[in-house]
Write a structure and sequence with these properties.
By secondary structure, this protein is mainly α. Helices cover 49% and strands 8% of the residues. It has one domain. A two-stranded antiparallel sheet has the order 1-2. Helix 2 runs antiparallel to helix 3 and helix 5 packs across helix 6. The two termini are 26 Å apart.
Length: 164
């Protein structure tokens, strides 16, 4: 599963969205048993940011989807402990809440969130193009979206993308 990848680096939420797209859900979360509220989601993210910072890493919010509150972020592991330490912070503070909240808010038709559409246009597709890979804009969280997202994360981790 992509969320269990040892590469915690850039844009986990893009890959998380791919994993959860088939689960469907309302465009705003309900207070069903086990579904975290937006406040709980934001608090868990803040705890993840604090944990990563205390360990010498960094988690930066890049954007927040206005409709759902889903946070697009990038994570930089600490020099000491690397991905394992960042993964521990993620697992302890945010993984369960992020997955439950995201599953509850993703569009049932799989349409891309506006922030994902913008990030594709502004960062992902230009990175792929700069590396000789021509792709059209995916419209849903399906295999095309997964492929461009995974390719982007790999290229960016190797420093092959223009600054975004």
């Amino acid at each position: 599963m992509l969320c269990k990848s040892s590469r915690v680096g850039l844009l986990r939420v893009l890959l998380l969205s791919v994993l959860l797209a088939s689960c469907g859900g309302a465009s705003t979360p309900t207070q069903d048993a086990g579904v975290p509220s937006l406040g709980e989601y934001q608090s868990a993210f803040a705890a993840f940011v604090e944990c990563a910072g205390n360990a010498g890493g960094a988690v930066e919010a890049i954007d927040t989807d206005a409709q759902t509150g889903i946070i697009l972020y990038r994570a930089q592991p600490p020099e000491v402990g690397g991905d394992a330490v960042l993964e521990e912070c993620y697992d302890t503070n945010f993984r369960t809440v992020e997955m439950a909240y995201s599953e509850a808010v993703l569009s049932s038709d799989g349409s891309l969130l506006d922030m994902d559409r913008e990030f594709l246009a502004d960062s992902i597709l230009p990175c792929l193009e700069a590396n000789g890979i021509e792709r059209e804009m995916p419209q849903t969280y399906g295999s095309d979206y997964r492929e461009v997202s995974e390719t982007f994360v790999d290229l960016d981790a190797r420093g092959l993308c223009p600054t975004h």
